[in-house]
Amino acid sequence: MESSEKIGSWEAERMGSVIASEAKQSQNFITSHLPRFLPLATRYLINSKGGNLMKGFTLWFTGLSGSGKSTLSKKVEEILLERGMKVEILDGDVVRTNLSKGLGFSKEDRDTNIKRIGFVCHLLTRNDVVAISAAISPYREIRDYNRKLIGRFVEVFCKCPIPVLAERDIKGLYKKALKGEIQNFTGVSDPYEEPLNPEILIESDKENEEESVLKIIRTLELMGYVPSSGESEYSDEEEEKIKARLKDLGYI
Amino acid sequence: MRKLLVIGLDCATPELVFDRWLDSLPNIKKLTQKGIYGKLRSTIPPITVPAWTAMMTSHDPGMLGFYGFRNRKSYGYDDLYFANANYVKAKTVWNYLSRNRLKSLVMGVPQTYPPKPLNGAMITCFLAPNKEVQYTYPDDLKYELDKAADGNYIIDVEDFRTNEKSELLKSIYLMTERRFKAFRYLYKKDSYDFAMVVEMGIDRIHHAFWRFFDKNHRLYEPGNPYENAIFDYYKMIDQEIGKTLELIDKDTSVLIVSDHGAKTMQGAICINEWLIKNGYLTLKEEPKKQTSLKMNMIDWERTKAWGEGGYYSRLFFNVKDREPQGIIPQENYESFREEIKKKLEAMTDEGGKCINTRALKPEEIYRECKNVPPDLVVYLGNLDWRSAGSVGTGSIYLYENDTGPDDANHAENGIIIWDLPKNKKETYSIYDIAPSILRYFGIEIPGEMIGESII
């Protein structure tokens, strides 16, 4: 079975008007297809739902400019807020205008910037806030440093090939970078080290925004970081009881 | 910071609240004098599910994809499900408020079970099978409720069909008092931007006691002991509202709404008996006594339509290549629907007088029709009659409801009272509530909401 296709159809059902049995099947599907975006190391967490819920964690987006970090982080923020969680986003572009104002794009400055973001995420996380970082964060070593510092850390790798990003070029940066007009541009004239074991892999050239958001939320639910939106169905006995009650009340 | 308190009174009826009893309801009256009040036009059908969810999402039942409590999951004959919160895919007011970091207390709003997480707290509704299940969010909240209610928190009255009317009356009072007590306890304990409680008691008391007070009801007896049961209960509700209003600060606006109204019930039309008599429905064998219609009793090869009971009726057609043993050719679907619609609308009472039934086509009343809509939505006698699904009744007309005594049917207009807006209209729309609430909090009204803000 081709996973990406199935996720697409699951998505369609979910967003449309899902009915009970289909929802159940989808859930089974997503569990059985978990490895695609959830590495072995984190799968054991799935059964430990209760203890994790409503505690802080850091959702760390990493990926090249234009790969969807900011967009996805905002969508995820909305859903987590809707579910009653405390959430803050540390967006790379925004952070550089305040927390890291004045820092440049040398390796040293980049590391300082990402460490600062990591430090704030750490403070938020230990106070049961969901901290979402949306910065390129190109160096594996610094990301892993933050992972170690924070502990409750979920890495989302927004993977997208440079030609696709250059084609999209939402901020018009790739054109300039490829012409050499911007120096130290990650992925073009500056290194980007891909995560080796991200908890979540987003391939924005292969999936749409809704699918990506759903994948992130679903993984967070399965890891027990986010309360599930709940799909529990009535047992047969409960259903009979409800039926009797509604009949009594004259509704049916 | 602006706050909003919404008090929902399921089935509160404009004719009673505004036309007859307003002077005896001082707290409600005070609110009507501050802002606007009027009728609130309900959904089609005007039933608790889907009406409250339609109010909280500003989506019509077709857009929501459920047309009543029980809905067809597929075009199979016996494939029905209960539309609980799992089937609500549209965003509710508190979803938007949570997204905007505003905190909500949501209590007793129908179709909120099973509870979904939100920024705030939720106590779900009578679709919770019992108190053992998770019916609050957060889960722990349920352990606090009984204490907050000063006794066993009652989700809904049990044993509604009893003939022990005084016991029933007591339990309705108890349920209401405890719900308001619990609500006030929770409301006081924390600070909420938006707080909403829906009390079901008015609906329950209407259905159970209407015959005792409505002089037009055929069973009304002057001087009966329950003559004032409904009136007294409205006064009690007004007092509970008064006690609740003592808690609010000057930045809190108060909105009172109901999902539909009530009116006297003439009786029930046995819709399936009617279909049998008109040659649209054939049973394998004639039932010897009154019984509810089971799908396996139907001779599908000789059946074109069957119907559901309830405060209104839904008709389903047996269409070729759609239903498992369908016989109506698809090309004849529309002409068949017209034929049966005309006959339904010409239906008379036993005296031969036309009862003004309305048969509505879902695609003409809804913006879209998600999932499996009924083929016709039928207001028997324009809701003066309810629909009974039973067969073997020997008559189309039934004067005791097939599922027990019932005195009132639902009416299309509920109520709205809001101490804020200035532009008075006679009738408002149930779809205008959600956009108005968002506007109140300065949140952009999403394009998919079909109503308009009244503020």
From TrEMBL, chain B:
Residue intervals passing through the bilayer: none
One protein family per Pfam: Phosphodiest
Domain of life per record: Bacteria
InterPro entries: Alkaline_phosphatase_core_sf, Phosphodiest/P_Trfase
Organism: Candidatus Schekmanbacteria bacterium RBG_16_38_11
Gene Ontology molecular function: hydrolase activity
PANTHER family given in the database record: BIS(5'-ADENOSYL)-TRIPHOSPHATASE, ECTONUCLEOTIDE PYROPHOSPHATASE/PHOSPHODIESTERASE
Name the record gives this protein: Phosphodiesterase
